């Protein structure tokens, strides 16, 4: 650690024109760490399988990245491309979901279900459009695709499509454990799906998002639903029925064109077309440019239990964390 020297002048009651004595005492004190933003960037050069990172998930001490070249796994300080059972049929990966110790991967041809990881491939579900979002609600797995929503019975062969969402691009799924329903971000607005029926919440009304071009939904531990759109965020409290829009003008959001949202470690992380932003409950912090990201389009986000965020971009992946560093370490 560095030391700061503090000069302490001892006042003297001497007569004449001298206000201070010639005695000068030097004291030192030890200064601790200061909070700093630290970014670690990963590209193909660091072993990442593909540099167009479309999905990210953190679970079981591993980081999973869905890329244009398949599934990459970070463990033990290094990246490895998944080469196990079913690897040849995965193709581009746009969704990764941790269901306890199990893993569900959304790929160009459908969804793959792994029992544990690395573990056996226990099931695959073909879809007519790429699987781009995944959620688990009760005894069902919801698979959002570029052309609708598939409902898969866990432990059964039953697969059905939600008729009300046929033709919709279901971009993101967030399950309200207390409310027994899933919220869906689609190209045609925000939906609440109870397993059978889908209710749409249009923009512009008293109950609905700031825009119908919804891109991401995510529940925080406090039960608040965060909805990302092309015109900013909407914060929804299902328990109270409250809706609040967060934009640049209302709430100070640094960039409004949102692509991804993740909540964890007491903060909300938002991926946008130009960088990422973090809301700590008091202020926004903005991350943009080569210092933090290998690309500006932040299209995937996941948060570790300790608060570090993994941000997927067109260009690679970044881990951003807040660390206490000393002056010598900066």
Task: Report on the architecture of this protein.
- Mean pLDDT is 88; it is low at 1-21.
- This protein has one helix and 30 strands.
- With 330 residues, it is mostly beta strands.
- The protein starts with a strand and ends in a 5-residue tail after the last strand.
- It has one helix at residues 87-90, and strands at residues 3-11, 20-30, 34-42, 53-59, 62-67, 70-75, 78-81, 93-99, 102-107, 110-115, 120-126, 131-137, 140-145, 148-153, 159-161, 170-176, 181-186, 189-193, 198-201, 214-219, 225-229, 232-237, 242-246, 258-264, 267-272, 275-279, 284-287, 298-303, 309-313, 316-325.
- Helix content is 1%, strand content 57%.
- Strands 3-30-29-28 form a four-stranded antiparallel β-sheet, with no helix packed on it. It has a four-stranded antiparallel β-sheet with strand order 4-5-6-7, with no helix packed on it.
Attribute tags:
330 residues, mainly beta, four-stranded antiparallel sheet, 1 helix, 30 strands, disordered N terminus
Average the pLDDT over all residues and give the rounded result.
88
Distance between the termini: 11 Å
Rg value: 25 Å
Question: Helix/strand-derived class?
Answer: mainly beta
Residues in helices, as a percent range: under 10%
**Percentage of β-strand residues:** over 45%
Can you list the strand order of the major beta sheet? 3-30-29-28
Specify the number of helices: 1
Question: Sheet with the most strands?
Answer: 4 strands, antiparallel
Q: Number of DSSP strands?
A: 30
């Amino acid at each position: 650690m560095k030391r700061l020297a503090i000069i302490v002048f001892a006042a003297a009651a001497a007569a004449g024109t001298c206000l201070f004595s010639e005695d000068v005492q030097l004291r030192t004190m030890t200064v601790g760490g200061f909070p700093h933003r630290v970014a670690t960037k990963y590209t193909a050069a660091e072993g990442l399988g593909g540099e167009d990172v479309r999905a990210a998930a953190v679970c079981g001490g591993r980081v999973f990245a869905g890329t244009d070249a398949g599934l990459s796994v970070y463990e033990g300080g290094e990246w490895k491309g998944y080469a196990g059972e079913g690897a040849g049929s995965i193709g581009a990966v746009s969704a990764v979901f941790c269901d306890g110790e199990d893993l569900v991967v959304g790929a160009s041809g459908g969804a793959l279900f792994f029992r544990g990881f690395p573990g056996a491939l226990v099931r695959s579900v073909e879809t007519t459009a790429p699987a781009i979002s995944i959620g688990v609600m009760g005894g069902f797995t919801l698979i959002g695709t570029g052309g609708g929503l598939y409902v898969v019975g866990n432990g059964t062969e039953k697969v059905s499509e939600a008729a009300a969402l046929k033709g919709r691009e279901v971009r993101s799924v967030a399950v309200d454990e207390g409310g027994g329903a899933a919220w869906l971000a689609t190209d045609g607005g925000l939906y609440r799906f109870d397993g059978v029926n889908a209710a749409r919440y249009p923009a512009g009304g008293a109950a609905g998002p700031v825009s119908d071009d919804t891109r991401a939904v995510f529940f925080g531990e406090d039960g608040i639903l965060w909805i990302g759109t092309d015109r900013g965020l909407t914060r929804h409290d299902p328990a109270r029925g409250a809706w609040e829009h967060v934009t640049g003008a209302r709430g100070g959001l640094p960039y409004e064109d949102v692509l991804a949202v993740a909540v964890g470690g007491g903060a909300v992380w938002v991926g946008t077309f130009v960088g990422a932003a973090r809301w700590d409950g008091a202020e926004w912090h903005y991350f943009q440019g080569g210092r933090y990201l290998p690309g500006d389009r932040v299209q995937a986000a996941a948060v570790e239990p300790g608060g570090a965020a993994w941000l997927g971009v067109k260009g690679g992946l970044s881990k951003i964390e807040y660390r206490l560093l000393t002056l010598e370490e900066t």
